[in-house]
Amino acid sequence: MDASFYGAVSLVAAAGYAGLAWAHRAGTVAATMPLASRSGQAMLLAVIAVHGLSLLPNWFSRDGLYFGFATSISWTLWLAVLLLWIESWFQRLPPITQGVFVVAAIAAVLPLIFPGRPLSTALDVSFRLHMLLAMLAYSTFTLAAASALLMLSMEKALHSTRRISIDSGGWWQGLPPLIGLDQMLLHMVFAGFILVTLTLGSGMVVGAELGRGLLRFDHKTVFTLASWALSLTLLIGHKWWGWRGRVAARWTLAGFVTLLMAYVGTRFVLEVVLDR
User: Fold this and answer.
1) How confident is the model at residue 222 (pLDDT cuts 50, 70, 90)?
2) Least C-beta-crowded within 10 Å: which of 161, 205, 226, 244?
3) Taking a C-beta distance cutoff of 8 angstroms, is the pair 59, 117 a contact?
């Protein structure tokens, strides 16, 4: 199958995400939410599968691993939507979830615009595992950052002079209470911390196999270590000093930004700004 086929698959995935975003926006009650039914969940799973298919050429190319910043973003959103699909089996997703589908639609076609360049021709198991763990960490922190922004926005709305109700119309409709969001945020940060730890560990293995030593202190390693330290600090602060709410949200966003800069940011500068 040639590149034009996978390009068409990317467009189909983007159209599917856009359709889900529109349907999620149109659903205002539980009975009409597209992901409140098994058919809606099956439809989302089909779109996720199509999106994953579009990413296969970059992952298994004979010329090497094409993994630029656009492919990184696309993988991140693919895994983020997959986590949302799993979450939809346990609770109804609020209408604001449509924003994730919109971003995923853009991410699905982004590699067509910025295909990137091959990083390596050695596609051994440890290298692919390292990249997969990194993408899982990115996806987890992406959802954690989205939850943190929701918490900050919801807390600001609750403290405003205008009284609001969770059951009334608005962007907050269908969201869990702040306590529930706080617990979900900390669970995601803990999962992200474990994944970043495994990413660093697998990176050491890959570095040793390539003869570069256990740790190579480049931009990617420094930013990843910074994100790891910020996550650990938040978890310790929550355990010993009860950090939650606004404090936890800000630490989460700081960890997300540093992890994003570890790879996506540096690849964007190299590929788009410096054209390297």
Assistant:
1) confident
2) 161
3) no
